[in-house]
Automatic annotation (TrEMBL):
GO terms for molecular function: ATP binding; galactokinase activity; magnesium ion binding; mevalonate kinase activity. It comes from Halapricum hydrolyticum. HAMAP family: Mevalonate_kinase. The keyword tRNA processing does not apply. This is Mevalonate kinase.
Length: 329
């Protein structure tokens, strides 16, 4: 039996535009998904999932049949979640040349589902690591990232960048531009505060919406390119350790994402509350539509402001996690 864990992430800059080859800078945060894999005597896959951010739920899953949750979890999210685990196990079987290996898999995640914090990538990364190790094979983080990307690509119908999976596998702040992925070294302390509205966005629909807009309107194509400019300026600010400039650029990035139609009333309310709470900057993180915002604030003004914001269900500080995927004792 092997347990591995992998971190979630926030996007400092660049979500959506990264799908069109612009750079993005996601940062791993100290909130992890833990996956335990135990080899079974047969070829079945049985999944037990405890989502630590909602009421616990358990689901049994055999082969292609979707189990029935015993508490109320959004059905599409659950089905999608099982798709990720199924494909992750397929990758482990492939890597270890063990096509008939069956597993009991247990997932415990402290990362809200579908909320822009990379929950699915963290589960997939940890699942591939735990299942391959259980089969006696040790993959390096770059190969796990690559295999996890293939899983996301498959489950999300070809609409996925390498950003989430690379970031979760490697930890720290990373830069992703097309297939070119690398860690950013010597990152300053980034005082992230996350606000969560308790909801989630439909990544596939949001990505498709931006694609249509970009095809129809020049302004949308220009907006995607402008996000790329903000990211490049953000990289300079990060290298210079200039938090004020980083915050200002996060504000610009949020405005551009709003122009592309991927923000929401609660995401905007949380972004504005963070700014009024003296955050250095704030933006939505991930696909948008609902879920989380990330603000930069070394003091407690943002946390206090978000606690009094209608629509904000929870607030937490999220330290940069410099460690990526790892085996748990
Ligand atoms: O909401 P998340 O954490 O799945 O992030 C989606 C980020 C997008 O850029 C919108 C899509 C992608 O695959 O990069």
């Amino acid at each position: 039996m092997v347990t591995s864990s992998a971190p979630g992430k926030v996007y400092l800059f660049g979500e959506h535009a990264v799908v069109y080859g612009e750079p993005a800078v996601p940062c791993a945060i100290e909130r992890r998904a833990r996956v335990t894999a135990e080899r079974r005597g047969d070829d079945k896959l049985r999944v037990n999932a405890t989502d630590l951010t909602l009421d616990g739920f358990t689901v049994e899953y055999d082969g292609d049949a979707t189990g029935t949750p015993d508490v109320d979890v959004a059905e599409p999210l659950l089905e999608e979640g099982m798709g990720y685990v199924n494909e992750a196990v397929e990758q482990a079987r492939d890597a270890a040349d063990a096509p008939d290996a069956g597993f009991d898999v247990t997932i415990e995640s402290a990362i809200p589902l579908g909320a822009g914090l990379g929950s699915s990538a963290a589960v997939v990364i940890a699942a591939i690591d735990a299942a391959t190790r259980e089969l006696g094979v040790e993959l390096d983080a770059a190969e796990i990232a690559d295999r996890a990307y293939r899983v996301e690509y498959e489950v999300q119908d070809g609409q996925a960048s390498r950003a989430d999976t690379f970031c979760s596998a490697m930890g720290g702040a990373v830069r992703v531009e097309g297939d070119d992925c690398r860690r950013i070294e010597d990152v300053p302390n980034l005082p992230f505060v996350v606000g969560y509205d308790g909801g989630s966005g439909d990544t596939g629909a949001l990505v498709a919406g931006v694609r249509d807009l970009r095809e129809e309107y020049d302004f949308a194509a220009d907006t995607v390119a402008a996000i790329g400019d903000v990211v490049r300026r953000g990289e300079q600010a990060l290298a210079a350790g200039d938090l004020e400039e980083l915050g200002e650029l996060m504000d610009f990035n949020h405005g551009l994402l709003s122009a592309l139609g991927v923000s929401s009333r609660t995401l905007d309310a949380m972004v504005w509350a963070a700014r009024e709470g003296d955050a250095l900057g704030a933006k939505l993180t991930g696909a948008g539509g609902g879920g989380c915002i990330v603000a930069l604030d070394p003091d407690d003004g943002t946390e206090t402001a978000l606690r009094y914001t209608q629509g904000c269900e929870s607030v937490f500080r999220a330290e940069l996690d410099t460690e990526g995927v790892r085996v748990e004792p």
